[in-house]
Design goal:
Blueprint: H1 2-25, E1 28-29, E2 34-36, H2 43-58, E3 62-70, E4 79-87, E5 92-97, E6 109-116, E7 121-125, E8 139-143, H3 149-159, E9 167-168, H4 172-192, E10 196-200, E11 203-206, H5 208-235, H6 245-260, H7 267-288, H8 293-316, E12 320-327, E13 331-337, H9 343-351, H10 354-367, H11 374-389, H12 397-405, H13 411-432, H14 435-460, H15 468-478, H16 489-505, H17 510-537
Parallel strand pairs: 7-8
Antiparallel strand pairs: 1-11, 2-3, 3-4, 4-5, 5-6, 6-7, 6-9, 10-11, 12-13
Helix pairs in contact: 1-5, 1-7, 6-15, 6-16, 7-8, 8-9, 8-10, 8-11, 9-12, 9-17, 10-11, 10-17, 12-17, 13-14, 15-16
C-alpha cells in the first residue's frame, strides 16, 4: 500500500515538474488574426476538417469564413488555420482547428462560441478548459467532456442560458475583431493578475509559482481528457480517420519549431526545481522504503553525482537548458536540448553517468574501515546503484547505450530488446514484491508493441534519400499505411523526430561502438572481480 501511494505521488509530481519546465520556457506573444475565405482553406486542412464539418452541418451550421492566426504558446512565425461555422437559428459560432493535444486520436478540435449583447462571451470545449487560466472578466470557459459533437452542442445551449441572455451573431469582420480583442485582453489579464512577466513589448513569460498552479490545472484536465479518450476507443466500432500527410507534417513542424524556440530557464529557477525535487524524493523514497531521512539523503547524494556526470558530458558537447530533476520513488533524470547530437556524444554522455559513481564508490569502500560506517554505506549505495544502471536494459543508461551503439540499426531487434527489458523489470518486481518495478516492466512491454509496429516504417524508410523536407514527407506518407492507424499523432511526431535525428547525426562507427561496448562490459566485470577481492581482504 505504501508503495502504491509513492507511485501515485511520483507520477503527477514528474508530470507537473515537466509542465513547469515547459511553461517557463514558452513565450506568449500578441497575435494578429487575419480574415480569409472558406475557398482559401488549404486542401490538407479541408480534408482533416471534413468529418467535423459534416457533423456540424447536420446540426444546422454552415461554413462562414476562415481565420489565420499564430498560436499564443506557439513559435513566433508559425500560423494555423481555423474554419469558422455559424448556426444562424441558435446564434452559435463553431471553430474547427488543428488538435492541440497530440496524444488524442482526433484530426480536429471544435469550440462553440456564443456572444451576448453586453459582450459577455461563453465558449465550450471538449477537454480544453484546463488550457485557460480562469477568472477573466466577461469570458466563461465551459468544458462539455464529450467527443460527440451533437451532445457538445446540446450541452453548450443548456449551459449558456445563465451567461448569455440575448445571444447575437457577428459578421466575419466583427468576428475577427472579437477574436483579436480576446487575445489582447487575455494576455493583459495574465499580466495584471501576476501570472506572467513582460519580456519585451508584446512578449510574456510565466512566473515560477503561477506556472506550478497552471501545471497542476493542466494535469487534472489532461487526466480527464485521457480517460475520455480511453472510453471513446473502447466504444469505437470503426477505424479512426487518417489525416492527410501534409496536415500531419504541418503539425510536426509546429511542434518542432516550438521546441527550437523554447527559452532556457534562469539558473535560480532550475535550482528551485532541483531543491523541490530533492526534498520530495527524500521524503517519498524514505517513506516508501521505511528508511530514515539521512539514509534517503545518502541515496539522493549518490544519484546527484550520477546525474552531474551526465550534466558534465552534455555541457562539454554543447547541450543547452540543462536540468536535473529527482523523481520520488524512482530516481532522477537529466534534461537537455541538442537537435543533432552525434552518436559518440550521446554514448559518452551515457557512460559519464555511472562511471564516476562506480570509480568513486570503490575508492571509498577500500578506504572505509567498515561497511557499517557512513563512508562504507555511501560506497555500497554508489556501487550498487551505478552498477545496476549500467546493465543493458532499457531505459537504464546501459540499455540506452546499447541502443545508441548497435540496436538502432536493427529496428526489429531493438523492439525485441525493449520487450525483454520490460520482462526483466516485471520479473524483478515480482521476485522482490516491488510494485514499482512490476509496473515499470508492464509499461516498457506496452511501449515495445508500438516500437514493433514502427519497425515496419523504419525498414521501409531505410533507403529513402533526399533533404530534410523530402525525408519528412516520406515518413508521413509511409505512416498513412493502415497498419499505423492506431498510432496517435504524438507517437508519429516522436517517430519522425527520431528518424530525422538519426539521419542527420549519422551512425556510430564500428571502432567507437566497440570501444564504448568494451567500456560497458568492463564496467560490469571489473566490479565483480573487485567484490571478490574485497571479500578476501576484508
Amino acid at each position: 500500500m505504501i508503495t502504491v501511494i509513492a507511485i501515485l505521488v511520483t507520477v503527477p509530481f514528474f508530470i507537473i515538474m515537466l509542465s513547469v519546465r515547459h511553461l517557463m520556457g514558452v513565450t506568449l506573444r500578441h497575435r494578429t488574426v487575419e480574415l480569409r475565405g472558406v475557398d482559401e482553406l488549404p486542401a490538407h486542412f479541408s480534408s482533416a476538417f471534413s468529418e467535423a464539418l459534416r457533423s456540424l452541418q447536420k446540426l444546422g451550421f454552415r461554413a462562414s469564413h476562415c481565420e489565420v492566426s499564430g498560436v499564443l504558446f506557439g513559435p513566433s512565425d508559425f500560423k494555423t488555420w481555423i474554419l469558422v461555422c455559424v448556426n444562424d437559428e441558435q446564434k452559435v459560432a463553431a471553430s474547427i482547428f488543428a488538435p492541440t493535444q497530440l496524444n488524442l486520436r482526433t484530426l480536429a478540435d471544435i469550440s462553440l462560441f456564443s456572444l451576448d449583447r453586453s459582450r459577455e462571451t461563453f465558449t465550450s470545449f471538449t477537454c480544453k478548459a484546463h488550457l485557460f487560466v480562469p477568472g477573466m472578466e466577461r469570458f466563461t470557459v465551459h468544458d462539455t467532456y464529450t467527443s460527440n459533437i451533437e451532445e457538445m452542442f446540446r450541452k453548450h445551449l443548456a449551459a449558456r442560458v445563465e451567461r448569455v441572455a440575448e445571444p447575437i451573431m457577428l459578421d466575419p469582420e466583427e468576428r475577427i475583431a472579437e477574436a483579436q480583442l480576446f487575445i489582447d485582453r487575455y494576455l493583459d489579464f495574465l499580466h495584471r493578475r501576476g501570472w506572467t512577466r513582460s519580456l519585451e513589448p508584446g512578449q510574456y513569460q510565466f512566473r515560477f509559482l503561477p506556472a506550478f498552479r497552471f501545471a497542476a490545472r493542466q494535469l487534472i484536465g489532461s487526466t480527464k481528457a485521457a480517460m475520455l479518450n480511453c472510453f471513446d476507443r473502447s466504444t469505437q466500432t470503426t477505424a479512426a480517420p487518417v489525416a492527410p500527410a501534409e496536415f500531419e507534417i504541418e503539425v510536426f513542424q509546429r511542434f518542432d519549431m516550438s521546441v527550437a524556440e523554447t527559452r532556457p530557464m534562469a539558473w535560480p529557477v532550475k535550482l528551485g526545481l532541483l531543491l523541490v525535487s530533492v526534498f520530495a524524493f527524500s521524503g517519498v523514497f524514505g517513506f516508501a522504503l521505511s528508511m530514515s531521512l539521512d539514509r534517503a539523503l545518502l541515496f539522493a547524494a549518490v544519484i546527484l553525482v550520477h546525474e552531474f556526470g551526465h550534466v558534465l558530458g552534455m555541457w562539454v558537447f554543447g547541450y543547452r537548458d540543462l536540468q536535473v530533476l529527482f523523481l520520488p520513488a524512482l530516481g532522477a533524470i537529466t534534461l537537455g536540448n541538442k537537435s543533432n547530437a552525434e552518436p559518440y556524444q550521446r554514448a559518452i554522455v551515457l557512460l559519464l553517468g555511472p562511471s564516476p559513481g562506480l570509480i568513486g564508490g570503490w575508492v571509498l569502500l577500500f578506504k572505509a574501515e567498515s561497511v557499517d560506517t557512513l563512508t562504507g554505506q555511501l560506497a555500497v549505495i554508489a556501487i550498487a546503484l551505478n552498477y545496476l544502471n549500467l546493465l543493458p536494459f532499457k531505459p537504464l543508461d546501459g540499455g540506452q547505450l546499447l541502443e545508441t551503439l548497435v540496436l538502432q540499426r536493427f529496428p526489429y531487434v531493438s523492439s525485441i530488446a525493449t520487450f525483454i527489458s520490460g520482462l526483466a523489470f516485471a520479473l524483478a518486481g515480482w521476485f522482490a514484491h516491488d510494485i514499482v518495478l512490476t509496473a515499470a516492466g508492464a509499461i516498457i512491454i506496452f511501449v515495445s508493441r508500438s516500437q514493433w509496429i514502427l519497425s515496419h516504417a523504419r525498414k521501409a524508410l531505410k533507403n529513402v534519400d533526399g533533404d530534410r523536407s523530402d525525408t519528412l514527407r516520406s515518413i508521413f506518407t509511409e505512416l498513412q499505411n493502415s497498419r499505423y492507424s492506431r498510432l496517435t499523432l504524438a507517437t508519429k511526431v516522436r517517430f519522425a523526430r527520431s528518424i530525422l535525428s538519426q539521419r542527420e547525426s549519422g551512425e556510430v562507427s564500428a571502432r567507437l561502438a566497440t570501444a564504448c561496448l568494451a567500456a560497458q562490459v568492463s564496467g560490469l566485470i571489473i566490479p565483480v572481480v573487485l567484490f571478490f577481492y574485497y571479500l578476501r581482504t576484508a
